[in-house]
Amino acid sequence: MIKFEYVGLRYGVGPEILSDVSFELEPGSFHFLIGPSGAGKTSLMSLLYLGQRPTRGQISMFDNNIGSLNRMQLADIRKRIGIIFQDFRLLPHMSAFENVALPLRIMGKPEREIRNNVEELLQWVGLGDHMNVLPSTLSGGQQQRVAIARAIITRPKLLLADEPTGNLDDVIGLRLMNLFDQLNRMGTTIVIATHNLQLIEKYKFPCMVLNHGSLEISSPTDKAVSQSFEA
Q1: What domains, with CATH codes, occur in the chain?
Q2: pTM for the full model?
Q3: Contacting residues for 51 by C-beta, under 8 A, at least 6 apart
Q4: Which band of pLDDT confidence, cut at 50, 70 and 90, is reported for residue 49?
């Protein structure tokens, strides 16, 4: 599904943030993305959701060379990607329900289908009593759950999440990880950036370890994983 070949990324004339990054993610795989602060995790996530193009190297997604696609073709690829940003990026003038429903409306889904799916998902993430309120009236954890619901409502082929359980209590965090696990079992490829070593040890998915701009994929029990948290 995803292939990076000797990808490098720099901003302006500064040093490379990512250097010769090469890896492949198979359809239906699940990876944690880890690394010390400044390792390039945010930059790698940005490349994965097509927020920017690499300075050099080649990225292929869904059997397409990203560098050869025009704006409309890139937009079509983005429709297959769900993104959970660390700063949520909810639309402040829309209710929780409307924020989650927005991707389905963009896809042209019938209103009855939208209402049923959105209500069911918001109930599941514990926001059944907050569907019609604005994001500004919600706590940080509640806003995070709205952002998560919006990202997964379309059952994307690829789900990217930046610290999705960071502001949540253990019960809700476990419920959402179980939801990600279910999505993965249904075929969604998932990459979760996290600083939570307990999460990695519990779920035991392979880790994409970034360090000084380079990347390796390791087992959660490998020394490189524990060293990443010590850095």
Answers
A1: 1-80+156-167+183-231 (3.40.50.300), 89-155 (no CATH)
A2: 0.88
A3: 45
A4: very high
